[in-house]
Amino acid sequence: MLVQSNVSLRHLNTFGLDADARFFINVHSVDELAAILHDPEWKNTPKFILGGGSNILLTRDIEALVIHPAIVGITVVEENEETVVLAVGAGEVWHDFVMHCVDKGYGGVENLSLIPGTVGAAPMQNIGAYGVEVKSVIECVEAVDIESGEKRIFSNEECQFGYRESVFKKSLKDKYVITGATFRLNKKPVLNAAYGDVQKTLREMGAEIPTIRDVSEAIMQIRRSKLPDPAEIGNAGSFFKNPEIPVAQFAHLRELFPEIPGYPVDAETTKVPAGWLIERAGWKGYREDDIGVHARQALVLVNYGGGSGAKIKALSEKIRESVNKKFGITLNVEVNIH
């Protein structure tokens, strides 16, 4: 295994930011990962896990051993007439995995088409889009303890999934390397196309009786129309979470702002689109030198080229302060800031 020194991470973060890793290694198997974690030469060196870099804002160089899980493979573990169980390596590109499932007719992840990143990041973030979260199809997650090098299997329940959350972002943050995940998918899928944009796009496509491929294609069309391609404009997708506020607070806001959208979470909580709040606070399309807020989606902060992570972080703090002042809502960041 080759440990490199002073490696640029520009190609491993979708913001396209210049940051260097003091040390860097690709690991292609669980055994390779365990070996580097057990190696006395690196035992006391801080470790930093970096997958596809699609949900991270690098504000400085990383003075650590950056481990990039490059464990790939999609294996059928179990199959019957109704379902199929797939074990997938953490290094697989998420969208490639989704397309594999669509090609095979396996339902459950089609609504998560075109989400950037790797399979290993999916459970950590509990990625979600258009009415589906990845927790609904995960059976278990395989991970390795950074301190001991020991392998552990986390059940769905043990992952403690929440809204863009998991145990790997909370109590076990920086303690485990996710090496793979196991998914249970449907061979006789029930489609989730309740979102208005999805229904509208399916109608425009002429998909009267849509398939999982139709749903996948519709969602890709929507995402491409609303979100910038990181290969063209550096970004990490949604920078902020959609806030969930008490029903009473939402009712008060609706008196002040009758057009404010809200979606019931439960009897006591309403979810408000962060993009709407940011746009109404005047930030949509804002540009400051080489960074800014995307012109079509206020939820996305962008690096037009040559921007810095520190400047993007400072902009995000200005946006949070502005939204809080106007609406009394504190936005929480979805992106991991380092």
What does this structure look like?
Its main location: cytoplasm. Residues 15-188 form the FAD-binding PCMH-type domain. Its cofactor is FAD. This is UDP-N-acetylenolpyruvoylglucosamine reductase. The protein is of the alpha+beta class and 338 residues long. It has four domains: 4-69, 2-Layer Sandwich (Uridine Diphospho-n-acetylenolpyruvylglucosamine Reductase, domain 2), CATH 3.30.43.10; 74-186, Uridine Diphospho-n-acetylenolpyruvylglucosamine Reductase, domain 3 (2-Layer Sandwich); 196-225, no CATH class; 234-337, UDP-N-acetylenolpyruvoylglucosamine reductase, C-terminal domain (Uridine Diphospho-n-acetylenolpyruvylglucosamine Reductase, domain 1), CATH 3.90.78.10. It has helices at residues 30-38, 94-104, 121-125, 196-205, 212-226, 247-256, 274-280, 309-327, and strands at 4-8, 20-27, 47-49, 56-57, 62-69, 74-79, 83-89, 128-129, 132-133, 138-145, 151-155, 176-186, 234-238, 244-246, 263-264, 269-271, 287-288, 291-293, 300-303, 336-337.
